[in-house]
């Protein structure tokens, strides 16, 4: 039973050992990654260039797109390269980096989604006070607080996960270094990381409750609107946001609360896709294709490019 050290190597076992399926997985993940890359970069570009989108809602959306871009980039490219090269190793420091940046970005995203629900609550339920409550300074402070909470959580998870020596086979039955699988490799019971996971789950659950309460107030206000168009616009803005939050948090709760099976489970791999790959890919579709302001901004960008080329 050899302990893992800073010079050790982990092996990300991924989805399968069958070469043909590995290639198929690499192509599938590559298409998803390119779609997420294009969608999130497009949103960042549109919001940056169009001054009409320099509002609190789009300020937070720009931050969300940047988070999604980084979140999918720390796990998927490595998995694609491993499948293409049939070489599933990752260094000890590479694994530590994945754990740190995953929790930094995932926790920040949960906090930011909570802030975005508050922004929608103020916009719909307290419209006359919106400019005062959601001032530029307040938006920057809320975004900074989201990043700060993510950084703190990442430090705690990384330090506690790797504070206990790991023994035995260095096989991580996942396509990236995820904490539940790493805990199964520890030489002894890692009470510190379990406590940190508990704190994280309380934080995430608190965010979910806050989001749920915000949307209860939002929907009760929306249903009172006399304008059918107003109700439709409010629901089209809020329901996709609620869907992303529910998918992101529910899959994460399941992955970190249920006990790992003794043998590798395909379900664990599929669940991890729902909180690492799906949200960064779906967010651009949800927030751009169904958003009138984003469509107008895209039209302006196309016209500007057309006139520049001519």
TrEMBL record:
GO cellular component: plasma membrane
Transmembrane segments: 23-47, 59-77, 89-113, 194-218, 239-257, 269-289
Protein name per Swiss-Prot or TrEMBL: Olfactory receptor
Species the sequence originates in: Sus scrofa
Topology relative to the membrane: Multi-pass membrane protein
GO molecular function: G protein-coupled receptor activity; odorant binding; olfactory receptor activity
Entries under Pfam families matching the protein: 7tm_4 (PF13853)
Sequence similarity: Belongs to the G-protein coupled receptor 1 family.
Tagged with keyword Oxidoreductase: no
Role, per record: Odorant receptor.
InterPro entries reported in the protein's UniProt record: GPCR_Rhodpsn, GPCR_Rhodpsn_7TM, Olfact_rcpt, Olfactory_GPCR
Positions of the G-protein coupled receptors family 1 profile domain: 39-287
CDD domains: 7tmA_OR14-like (cd15227)
Protein's UniProt keywords contain Cytoplasm: no
Subcellular location: Cell membrane
PROSITE patterns: G_PROTEIN_RECEP_F1_1, G_PROTEIN_RECEP_F1_2
Main location: membrane
PANTHER family on file: OLFACTORY RECEPTOR (PTHR26452)
Keywords annotated in UniProt: Cell membrane, G-protein coupled receptor, Membrane, Olfaction, Receptor, Sensory transduction, Transducer, Transmembrane, Transmembrane helix
């Amino acid at each position: 039973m050899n302990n893992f050290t800073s010079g050790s190597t982990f092996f990300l076992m991924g989805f399968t050992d069958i070469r043909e399926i590995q290639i198929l997985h690499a192509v599938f993940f590559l298409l998803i990654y390119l779609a997420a890359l294009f969608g999130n970069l497009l949103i960042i570009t549109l919001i940056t260039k169009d001054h009409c989108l320099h509002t609190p809602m789009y300020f937070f959306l720009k931050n969300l797109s940047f988070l999604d871009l980084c979140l999918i980039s720390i796990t998927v490219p490595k998995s694609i390269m491993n499948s293409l090269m049939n070489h599933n190793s990752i260094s000890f420091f590479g694994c530590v980096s994945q754990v740190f940046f995953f929790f930094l970005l995932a926790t920040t995203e949960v906090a930011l989604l909570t802030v975005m629900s508050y922004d929608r609550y103020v916009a719909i339920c307290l419209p006359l006070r919106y400019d005062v409550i959601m001032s530029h300074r307040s938006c920057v402070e809320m975004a900074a607080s989201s990043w700060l909470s993510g950084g703190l959580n990442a430090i705690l998870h990384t330090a506690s996960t790797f504070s206990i020596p790991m023994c035995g086979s260095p096989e991580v039955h996942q396509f990236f270094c995820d904490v539940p699988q790493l805990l199964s490799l520890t030489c002894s019971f890692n009470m510190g990381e379990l406590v940190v996971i508990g704190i994280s789950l309380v934080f995430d659950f608190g965010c979910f409750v806050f989001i749920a309460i915000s949307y209860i107030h939002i929907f009760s206000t929306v249903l009172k609107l006399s304008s059918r168009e107003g109700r439709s616009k409010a629901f089209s803005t809020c329901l996709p946001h609620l869907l992303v939050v529910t998918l992101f948090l529910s899959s994460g709760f399941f992955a970190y609360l249920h006990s790992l099976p003794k043998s590798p489970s395909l379900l664990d791999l599929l669940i991890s896709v729902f909180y690492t790959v799906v949200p960064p890919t779906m967010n651009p579709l949800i927030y751009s294709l169904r958003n009138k302001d984003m469509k107008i901004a895209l039209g302006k960008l196309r016209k500007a490019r057309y006139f520049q080329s001519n």
